[in-house]
Design goal:
With 716 residues, the protein is mainly α. The protein has a domain at 431-715: Helix Hairpins. It has 12 helices and no strands.
């Protein structure tokens, strides 16, 4: 109500006054009736405009809520995308950390410097990625990133220490302390090989065994055992029957070996400690990865919650605005309906009564100042006009009845006079019709008789025309046929002459064919003989190939036995230890040669099997060639027989051709007589057709003259 009261438009000021209760009326049912009565003085357009204003205000509110919802959801979804990207980047950094760990392990296992380079490259990439994440991090997330960066720096430094120690120990058996130890071993073993002593060799083998155990297990007890074996070796060396200079040499070489082992063992133990420290540092990096990931996950969940909360709030506001708008629109609609529909129905009832002729009916609503008041006033005017029009129509009907009686009396008098005149004219017309009927009967009889005669004349002339035309057509066809027969007889004579010459040439060709067939039979016999010899040779080759296959099988069995003996020799050499190393090498070479022999035998066997298959195919092909040549020989014999029969048939044809030539000459003479008779027939048929045409034209002229005469008679 305040909105309507303060709105500057005069319509809404009227609405405000209409809804303002009268000071003397209490707020009850009478007050509502007074409000409705006041609203009826407002135009319907203003009432509907009020409802439109309510709908527009509700729509603006809904659009405002929708705009607010869209903005807040867009912001929340943008934050969700930001934290989602941050989470993806954090997981990618964590995967890079796992790859960094993989490079570390690969370097320690493979001992390849390329993994150290890959570690450095991956570490730099992780540092750059963490720096790129700083702008998107805050609070705990940024603190976790700083701690992770520091731990990764420590891990990188520790890895450099481990890598340097590994390179110092040796990346393979020939580098670093491991290479020095190997060289010292070879030196002491060479000295003992030149000055053999069983006790010293056994003690040296025991030290080598302890060395291998330490390298494999990294147990410090093997260092002590080597020191013990060192003392035992020195004692045994002092008791050995070697010259002093030899003892001094062996003692020097032993000292170098023990010193190289101690250096290697110390570095290996230090390397193990540094690797343990490296793993401890790596475990600390997992906390940093987890901190960044938790920060991103929490931010993403918070953004999703904000979006959901915005949607829920927008839904509540939309429903509230909709309910308020529906209630306001419902109340306004009820008021508009009660102030519009009711008066319209009362006006409808009044109009219906007026339409039924009750012109004393009261028209309600003429006192209102809205559109319905104007309609009520117009209906009241129409009622008065209709009452006046009905009075005037009644007077007009009475006048028309009087004029109708007068006109009817005059019309009856005119009808009686016309009836008398019509009866007299009908009597005269009947007499004329009787005379015309008699004349029509005479004309019809004459017309029927003359039509029958003309029809017979037309049929006779038509039959004569058809007969003449038929005679002419027969003569034409006979002449054409005679000409065709003449031409055919001439062509037949020429063809018979050509045929006679061709038959002579055909006889000579048949004789030549007989000679060629006899030569072909001789060649086929020679080809059969050569094919038989080739088949025998190919069969012998197939037998030889089978024998070679058996020899190759024998070689393959020998290679398998040799391979088995080499394997047994290798096993025995392994059991013999150091003494069997040379024999083991020889056994290995023998085994390799046996494998090569078996492989070569397989290849040769494959080639021989292919050759056997080809030989079998060739044998089959040669046999097929032989069969084909035999069939060809039979065909040639048949051709020779047929040629002889053709020669006798040709002689008979030559005799018949001579007879046909004489018959063609006789046919030509007879056809000449037929052509002469046809010309005479054509002339006679032309004369008959001319006479028939003249007769037909005469009948048409008589028919036309008769029709004109009868037409003149009918018109009289």
């Amino acid at each position: 109500m305040v909105v309507f009261a303060t709105y500057p438009h005069p319509t809404f000021r009227v609405l405000s006054a209409a809804y303002r209760p009268h000071p003397m009326v209490k707020p009850n049912g009478l007050a509502m009736k007074q409000i409705i009565h006041n609203i009826r003085h407002i135009s319907i357009l203003a009432r509907v405009g009020g409802l439109a204003v309510i709908a527009i205000v509700a729509l603006v509110c809904v659009l405002a809520v929708n705009f607010w919802t869209t903005e807040n959801r867009s912001f929340a979804e943008g934050m969700a995308v930001k934290y989602s990207d941050l989470l993806s980047n954090a997981r990618f950094v964590e995967l890079q950390g796992l790859q960094l760990r993989q490079h570390e392990k690969n370097f320690l296992l493979e001992k390849d410097v390329q993994f150290r380079t890959a570690y450095v490259r991956t570490a730099d990439a992780i540092a750059n990625q963490i720096s790129a994440l700083y702008d998107d991090l805050s609070g705990e997330g940024r603190s976790a990133a700083v701690r992770l960066q520091q731990v990764l720096q420590r891990h990188r430094g520790q890895f450099n220490i481990v890598a340097n120690l590994q390179e110092e120990v040796g990346l393979n058996e020939e580098s670093g302390l491991q290479g020095a130890l190997r060289e010292a071993v070879h030196t002491i073993e060479e000295a003992l090989k030149n000055h053999s002593n069983k006790d010293l060799s056994i003690l040296m083998l025991m030290m080598r065994r302890h060395e291998k155990d330490f390298i494999a297990r990294l147990d410090p007890k093997y260092i002590t055992r080597i020191a013990t074996r060192d003392q035992e070796f020195r004692t045994a060396l002092d008791n050995a029957a070697f010259p002093d200079e030899v003892k001094a040499l062996i003692r020097e070489k032993l000292g170098l070996y023990v010193q190289a082992f101690n250096n290697y063992a110390a570095k290996r133990q230090e390397l193990i400690r540094e690797i343990t420290e490296l793993e401890t540092i790596y475990e600390q990096t997992l906390e940093g990865y987890e901190g960044i990931r938790d920060f991103a996950s929490a931010g993403y969940a918070r953004a999703q919650a904000d979006a959901a909360r915005t949607t829920e709030t927008a839904s509540i506001l939309t429903w509230g605005i909709s309910i308020v708008a529906i209630l306001a629109a419902g109340l306004g609609s009820a008021i508009v309906v009660s102030t519009t529909v009711g008066p319209v129905r009362r006006l409808q009832a009044a109009v219906s009564q007026i339409a039924d002729g009750q012109f004393d009916t009261h028209v309600p609503g003429t006192e209102y100042r809205d559109e319905l008041g104007g309609v009520a006033q117009a209906i009241e005017t129409l009622r008065d006009n209709a009452s006046e029009r009905l009075r005037l129509e009644q007077e007009a009907k009475e006048f028309q009845a009087r004029e109708a009686r007068r006109e009817r009396e005059e019309s009856e008098n005119k009808v009686a006079q016309e009836r008398a005149r019509f009866e007299e004219e009908a009597h005269l017309a009947q007499e004329r019709e009787e005379r015309a009927d008699a004349l029509r009967r005479l004309v019809a009889g004459f017309e029927e008789q003359i039509s029958k005669n003309m029809l017979r004349l037309s049929d006779a002339s038509y039959d004569m025309q058809e007969s003449a035309q038929t005679m002419f057509d027969v003569a034409e066809k006979t002449g054409t046929s005679a000409t065709s027969v003449t031409n055919a007889a001439s062509a037949m004579d020429d063809s018979v002459s050509v045929m006679s010459t061709a038959i002579e040439e055909f006889s000579a060709s048949i004789a030549e064919v007989n000679a060629q067939v006899r030569s072909a039979n001789t060649l086929c016999d020679n080809a059969v003989s050569a094919t038989s010899e080739g088949t025998d040779s190919i069969t012998s080759l197939a037998e030889s190939a089978k024998q070679v296959d058996e020899v190759m099988q024998l070689i393959e069995d020998i290679a398998a036995q040799t391979n088995l003996l080499a394997l047994n020799a290798t096993i025995e050499a392994a059991r013999a230890g150091e003494a069997g190393k040379g024999f083991a090498v020889v056994a290995s070479e023998v085994k390799s040669l046996a494998n090569q022999t078996a492989s070569a035998t397989d290849r040769v066997g494959t080639q021989i099997k292919g050759m056997q298959t080809s030989v079998e195919i060739v044998v089959g092909a040669m046999q097929n060639v032989k069969d084909i040549i035999d069939q060809l020989n039979s065909i040639m014999t048949g051709i020779a027989s047929a040629s002889e029969e053709q020669e006798s048939t040709t002689s008979e044809i030559r005799r018949n051709v001579s007879v046909s030539t004489e018959s063609a000459r006789q046919v030509s003479a007879e056809i000449s007589d037929v052509n002469s008779n046809v010309s005479k027939t054509r002339e006679v048929s032309g004369s008959v057709r001319t006479a028939a045409d003249d007769l037909s034209r005469l009948g048409e002229t008589m028919s036309r003259d008769t029709s004109e005469f009868l037409q003149q008679v009918r018109t009289m």
